[in-house]
Write a structure and sequence with these properties.
single chain; alpha/beta; Zincin-like; 2 domains; 4-stranded mixed beta sheet; flat
C-alpha cells in the first residue's frame, strides 16, 4: 500500500494498492467520500501505475468536481424519505414522529439521532412487510431479518435464510425498496444470480430493471447523507 499525490489545484491524494487478483490497472473513486484508489496487478511496477494515473488526471478532476458534497441532517433541512424530500421540523408533541408531509422532532435530543431512529423503524416495518409478502408468494420463509448501514450492498440472504437490508432503503422510492426485498427473498429459492434467479425476481417484481438502475445511478446519494453528530 502506498500513496501518490497529483500536484495541482487542488492536489489529489491517491492510494496505490497491489492486488493478486487484479489483471489490469484500475482507478476507482469512492462515491461516498471521494477517495481515489489505483489498483495495480501484483507484479506491476509503481511507476507504471503513476504513468497511468497521469493520463487519467483530467477525467479524475472532472469526476471529483461533479460529485455532490455530503450533507448532514439538521433541523430545518429536508431529507429523502420514501423518495421525497421531507422537511425536518420541530414538532409540538413530546415524541418524534413521521407525519404525512414532514418529520417532527423534539428539542430533547439532537435532530439527527431522532430522524435516524425514525427511519430505521420505518425501514424495518416496510422491509418486513415486503419480505413477508414475497416469501408467502414463493411458499418460503426466512429465519430472521436484520438492518445495517452497509455501503457495499443493499441487502443479502444467507444460506440459512437470514435476510439483511440497509435501512437507508427507506429513503429511496418505495418501488426500489420493494425490488431489493424481492431480490433477497428470491435467494431463498435460488442462491445465485443465474437466469433462473432473475426469473424469480421478475415474477415477484415485474419491471425490476428500472429499480435496479435507480440504485446504480442514484443509490450512492443516500450514503452521502450523514446522520452522526
Amino acid at each position: 500500500m502506498g500513496r501518490h499525490t497529483l500536484e495541482g489545484n487542488p492536489p489529489i491524494e491517491v492510494t496505490l494498492r497491489h492486488s493478486a487478483r487484479a489483471r489490469r490497472l484500475s482507478l476507482r473513486v469512492s462515491r461516498l467520500d471521494g477517495r481515489v484508489t489505483l489498483t495495480l496487478p501484483r507484479n506491476a511496477p509503481q511507476r507504471e501505475g503513476i504513468a497511468f494515473l497521469q493520463t487519467k488526471e483530467a477525467w479524475l478532476r472532472s469526476h471529483l468536481q461533479s460529485m455532490k458534497p455530503a450533507t448532514r441532517v439538521k433541523l430545518g433541512d429536508t431529507v429523502p424519505f420514501r423518495g421525497r424530500a421531507t422537511p425536518v421540523v420541530l414538532g409540538a408533541g413530546r415524541r418524534a414522529r413521521i407525519a404525512a408531509d414532514r418529520i417532527e422532532v423534539t428539542a430533547a435530543m439532537p435532530a439527527t439521532a431522532q430522524v435516524k431512529a425514525l427511519m430505521r423503524h420505518a425501514a424495518r416495518d416496510a422491509l418486513a412487510q415486503a419480505s413477508d409478502r414475497y416469501a408467502a408468494q414463493l411458499g418460503q420463509s426466512y429465519t430472521r431479518l436484520s438492518l445495517r448501514d452497509t455501503r457495499s450492498r443493499w441487502g443479502s440472504c444467507t444460506s440459512q435464510g437470514g435476510l439483511m437490508y440497509s435501512w437507508r432503503l427507506i429513503m429511496a422510492p418505495p418501488a426500489v425498496l420493494e425490488y431489493v426485498a424481492a431480490h433477497e427473498v428470491a435467494h431463498l429459492v435460488e442462491m445465485n444470480h443465474q437466469p433462473a434467479f432473475w426469473e424469480v425476481v421478475e415474477g415477484l417484481c415485474p419491471g425490476f430493471e428500472q429499480h435496479r438502475r435507480w440504485l446504480r445511478t442514484e443509490g450512492d446519494q443516500l450514503h452521502r447523507i450523514i446522520f452522526d453528530d
